[in-house]
Write a structure and sequence with these properties.
Length: 508
């Protein structure tokens, strides 16, 4: 790791006493941050700490309410809406900044197209796009439409855009949230190569292991205020977590609720196939937390979307509380007590331009009707109950959901699906893109639901999560269930052996 202790190096970019308010709600309070040439600087904090707002200010996508930005030691007003790229400052957005109707090549060169004799030089741009994608170890087709790409591939296109612009300073806001470990390692290799050439990075992440592996210094924000900046080598994961939340996290995972073997089977899936998923069968008992693990693309989400009625089934049956659940009938699944919580809270789970109450009751409107109209008093009562139960914290109840922190959005999404009072709950990536303190809360919410007698399926790409939460773990590989693990079998080595195809337990 590069040493960054040399104080003689002047910062390439610095923030001095940056404050920011949205209306009468202040989110940053006189924050300082400096970025040295050729360093990877981690920016850490709980959701709502102000990280993304600070990053947007330092890349020109938001304007500070007060304070100074210095570029190469000189005060600067950054041009808005991405124009700061001309100064060598690039932001890889947490939410994708891609146009679905463009190709990968067109997306990489948008706003800086290459021309020849007054015409677009498409051949040159395609070749350059292919070179950058190969540099990232990506097999994405440079001619593919953005709309046709999986979420992980869209993230790689965002990363390729930043690399292709030969930036001096790259802000990466949760860049690995949807990447596999292999894709993450390729990205980190590229970051190290660019760092060696003098490029600076600001790395916003909730993954403490990645911060410890990649970064040179760490700055921690809490509640919009600067807490500490220190060399990464002087900290450990526990120390960073404590700085972020202001308290010790002695018990990240709650005690597991072990259902009795004689408990009722509430969900039974028999020979389900979707085209990619082949012949999947499993059972879920009352009060159980069942994990689904596997590499990205193994078919976990496809299987559960088919179970919940969101995706067609080619064959197989789903039995819910002793009766067949008809295929592609999401409303009926909800009515009978099966809820599905999507991993894509911004794209599929929440209406970002609406308020909290409209989102909370969207899936359960009939419960809040008075005659044929929505009853505001009933909705307000539900919102107050959800805020207490799931600890949803906002400074202004009128806030649009898109302005809320990722952790509060995730808790609101969980509250939304619980409004239908489900007995079987499928939660896809329960803690993607949220901080360690909110993770702990989500884990304890899940455990509490199991103790109430509800049955939960947890799909997660984080092995510590399924190990810490689940009493059984199903492993999928290439669309097939290849293992069902219990007891001491639930460990990272065994899960990875099944996921990688080195071990097989179940009939295909």
């Amino acid at each position: 790791m590069t040493s960054v202790g040399d104080s003689a190096r002047a910062p390439v970019l610095a923030a001095e006493r940056i404050s920011k308010s949205f209306g009468d709600v202040q989110v940053l309070f006189s924050v300082d941050l400096d970025v040295l040439p050729g360093e990877v600087h981690a920016l850490m904090g709980e959701n709502g700490a102000g990280k993304s707002t600070l990053v947007k200010i330092l890349s020109g996508f938001e304007q500070a309410s007060s304070g100074t930005i210095l570029l190469d030691g000189e005060p600067v007003i950054l041009p808005p809406n991405g124009a700061a790229e001309a100064l060598g400052i690039v932001l890889i957005h947490q939410e994708f900044n891609l146009a679905d109707h463009l190709t990968v090549t067109e997306s990489l060169f948008l706003g800086r197209e290459v021309t020849r004799f007054g015409m677009l030089d498409r051949k040159h741009m395609r070749a350059e796009a292919r070179r950058v994608l190969d540099q990232l170890g990506s097999r994405i087709d440079e001619n593919a439409l953005i709309s046709s790409l999986a979420v992980a591939d869209k993230q790689m296109v965002e990363i390729a855009k930043a690399i292709s612009r030969r930036a001096r300073i790259v802000f990466m806001d949760e860049p690995t949230a949807v990447l596999s470990r292999e894709e993450t390692e390729v990205l980190f290799d590229q970051v190290r190569k660019l760092r060696a050439g003098g490029t600076s990075f600001v790395f916003v992440s909730h993954k403490l292991d990645e911060v410890m592996e990649l970064t040179d210094r760490v700055t921690v924000l809490r509640d919009g205020q600067w807490v500490k900046t220190a060399p990464t080598s002087a900290l450990d994961g526990e120390a960073i977590a404590q700085l972020m939340v202001g308290r010790e996290l002695s018990s990240l995972y709650p005690n597991k609720h072990e259902p009795d073997v004689d408990e009722e089977v509430v969900l039974s899936v028999k020979g389900l196939s979707t085209g990619f998923v082949k012949n999947a069968s499993f059972e879920l008992r009352r009060g159980e937390v069942l994990g689904f693990s596997g590499l990205i693309g193994s078919g976990r989400t496809e299987l559960m979307e088919a179970v919940a009625g969101l995706r067609p089934r080619l064959s197989g049956e789903v039995w819910l509380k002793g009766a067949v659940l008809e295929p592609q009938d999401f409303r009926e699944a909800n009515r009978r007590g099966l809820a599905y919580m999507t991993k894509d809270r911004k794209g599929k789970g929440l209406l970002l331009g609406e308020g909290m109450t409209a989102n909370l009751t969207l899936q359960s409107m009939e419960r809040h009707l008075r005659y044929v109209y929505l009853d505001p008093a009933s909705e307000a009562k539900a919102m107050a109950r959800a805020k207490r139960r799931f600890d949803i914290r906002v400074r202004d109840d009128r806030i649009k959901v898109g302005r809320m922190s990722g952790g509060n959005q995730q808790k609101l999404l969980l509250a939304k699906i619980m409004e239908i009072e489900p007995q079987v709950i499928v939660i896809d990536e329960p803690t993607r893109g949220i901080d360690v303190g909110t993770k702990q809360q989500i884990y304890h919410f899940i455990a509490a639901l199991a103790r109430e007698g509800r049955s939960i399926i947890v799909i997660s790409s984080e092995m510590p999560e399924v190990i810490g939460l689940c009493t059984r773990v199903a492993v999928m590989r290439e669309g097939r269930m290849v293992g069902m693990l219990e007891g001491e079998e639930i460990n990272e080595q065994t899960i990875m052996r099944y996921a990688a195809g080195l071990k097989r337990q179940m009939a295909s």
